[in-house]
Write the structure tokens for this entry.
Amino acid sequence: MDELNSQENDIKTKDMTEYYIQQMELTKIKNNLNQAQKIANIGSLEYDVENDKGFWSDQLFRIFGLKPQKDFFPDYRMYLSYLHPDDRPAFEDQFQKLLKEKNSVDLICRIIRQDGEERFIHHRADFFAEESGSAKIIATIQDITEKRRMEEKLYENERRIGQIYENLEVGIYSADLIEKKVIHFSRGVEGIFGYTAEEFIADFDLWNNVILPDDLQGVEAERAKILNGNSIRYQYRIVHKSGEVKWVNDHSIPYLNESGEPIRVDGFVTDITEQKWLEEKMRHMAFYDHLTDLPNRRYFDQKLQSLIEDSEHQRFAILFFDLQRLKQINDTFGHSAGDELLRLVASRIRERLNINFFSARISGDQFAVIKEHIQEVEDPAQLGESVYQIFSEPFHIESFELNITPSIGISIYPNNGDTAEEMVRNTETSLYHAKQKGRNRFQVYHPSMDIESYKLFTLEQDMRKALVNDEFFLEYQPRVDTKTGKIVSAEALLRWNHPEWGRVSPLEFIPVAEESGLIINIGEYVIRKVCRQLFDWKEKGLSIVPISVNISPLSFLKNSLVSTIKEALDENHLEAELIEIEMTESSLINYSENVISVLKELGSMGVMIALDDFGTGYSSITQLKKYKFDILKIDKTFIQAMDKNTEDAIITANLIRLAHGLNMKVVAEGVETFEQFYSLRKNECDQIQGYLFSKPVPPSAFEQKLLIGTLKPQNIKEDNVFKGLRKYARVEFPYPLEAEMTILELNSKPVKMGSTKILIEDMSAGGVKFVSKMKLPVRKDIILLIETKLLGEVLSFTGTIVRKDEISDALTNYGFQFIIEEGPRAELAEMLDILAIQLEQNPSVPESRFVETASSQLYFE
């Protein structure tokens, strides 16, 4: 019995162990299931239909936002209450369908959790019937909220992309190259071409038909690259359905099959008409002058460079011309009038120069014209006449009629230069020389212009610096009483000691100052310097006399002239009568209204007014009466011709009487001989100014003359500065020998320029004496080269200027010393000996460049 009980106990123990093991396995499975549901965010539900009781997994509680509860069995109504109100009808329909068909259903719906958050769930339910016949529903519920939101976002993005795609102003296309048909074209094509996508799809050739015929060949050449499998970007013009021409940019990308053959092309085309318009506008702004709408300097430079790079090297001409008096017009009438004049000139250029001319405005008042394909026989005067025709009629601006005359410089390619820079430089040089000759003149470039132009260029560059560095200085030329010889006045004459060119003649730098407008600053500089000098002499106890100052016509346009004179007088405690203003006749002609205003103010102050160079301009007797001058200065051209020309003597005598009749004193300028002096004194000329009494002298020398008080006329002896110590015998030429001179080094720096003509008057083995228009200093750091032909041999000499003597305002005599080895010097001396013998026999020497001229003056004129 005990054994049986023991066996039963063992069996029970074993069964209990197995039971517990099974329970543990079930718990483990359950836990694993719950963990799996949690990871997958899937909950399970078992619903007892008859008892209306649901059994939820832990994850289902979590999905619905509830805490898991063991003894909580939600019924159908409770489950329904968690669903979104809008989704409950659909759920109930599916539930009834499940009960009826006893199959399975799927439903996506929303739930509202206790915290108010709305979630999406995927509900899948299956119907089961147990052996007992009771109905059950087994369901899985997955939270698909995140997935749903991603799908909605993706849909929204696709919708937006689709909307953008269809509304882009871009034609996106795909074409089948095998079937020769358009597969797709976006709606953006209509805005570009005017044709719909359907029209392009229906007609494969339409695309080619809308391409501008001029661009079709280029388009086909680009498209051929697609057949090689290359993507291409190209631009061309199309004709819009409305007839408007547009620019498009096309980017085509080929699609290749497995064999590498293009079977389809995809791409997009965009309207770049506005971009092209902006590019053209920017190009126009970059290459055209904003005021005249002519090509500008940049365009001109490119045009010139392209002509020179042309392999055919066609001959062409460049003409530079500028407008005389534009600055005066701006100052007198305002810049708006000057701008209008430039526009009118540009308009005439476009009207009157034919298609063979290229025209541009290259600076403020300067224009350029290029004439291509000129012939050898074509006269430069004909080219100049083409420009003169532009100015043949006056320009009407507001109520004024303006007669404008140009100065024209011309150079010919390739005769006058090989590069663009050289052509421009030489044309500017010829223009400058044309301006020096006077208005309405043209000048064709010649190499001899280079030296003078280079010098004038450096003068213009250095002039402003010269004012700051006080390189200018004054000399004073006395004016004496004709009867007594007493010094009654003096003229202040401006001089410039240039650091490279030495003493520069006013005839060279004053026109440059006038052209640049710096003459106004220089005038003020002279006024202040004269007043300071007068104060200094007064402090020394000298009997000071009035000093006359030359004033540029441009100064009358500046309001500060009167105030400058007044300030200079006040600062130095001087009376206004000690300053005399000299003005030229051109001031009366060009600036009459301004002159009247300024003269009245100066006259009321007590400043004396003199009319300078009378007889060289166009003044009338009426103007002499109108302006009330104190002094009339007769120009030296009349005075110096009195000895030889009876008419000039009569004119001079009558001018003196005329001036006296108008209560003006008369000053004769440039008196150099006793004969001139006696004639002027006989005709009661008031004052004499000239070399007969004194050259212009520095302030210290003028002080000595003031101390003496009177001057006596003196014979002017021609001291030959070239006589004296001469190491080598010289050969005097019966006629001057023509030669070319150029500068090799300036201030110890190599320079490259053209040459200028000179006349050699004598020669030795040590050097030559020559005459030139050039004004050059005596400096050893300026190396010159002289070339000529004598006795059939071409001679070249380098050397320096060691002496100089000014023959006249225009010409200078120079002593030139050779830099030469003794061997060549001996050969030259031998040649000169032969020449001297030949000259004794016959002054006409063959194979030499002697010029039979009466004087050097006539030659250079």
Q: What stands out?
A: The first strand starts at residue 42 and ends at 48.
